[in-house]
Amino acid sequence: MTFESEIRVVGILAFLFMVYSLWMGQMKASGLPAGYTSPVLALELAANGSEIDAINLFEGGKATAFIANSCLGAKICAIL
Questions:
Q1: Fewer CB near the terminus (10 Å): N or C of the chain?
Q2: Residues whose CB is less than 8 angstroms from the CB of residue 59 and which lie 6 or more positions away in sequence, other chains included
């Protein structure tokens, strides 16, 4: 693999990661702990277990289902 093709592969992977990151931020919700609107960010920055439980139970598990479905994409990106 030449240097130019390696740079092209890295650029394509960076673009795919950017698109995936934008897709992860598409779900918005009000009423999450600490005023977060994104369940992904709320889980990343949860202060304690009770906040994690509140996020997981938010709107009948809608946020948890969204995050679980998007993990499949993360596994595919990790393989690449």
A1: N
A2: 29
Closest among 10, 9, 11, 42 to 24, alpha carbons compared: 42
Do the Cβ atoms of 64 and 56 come closer than 8 Å?
Answer: yes
Angle at which helices 62-79 and 49-57 cross, to 10°: 100
Question: What token pair was written down for 49?
Answer: 């277990």
pLDDT (tens digit, 9 = 90+) per residue, 45-65?
787 888 888 877 777 777 777
In residues, how long is the chain? 80
Global pTM reads: 0.47
Burial class (CB in 10 A: 0-12, 13-18, 19+), 32: buried
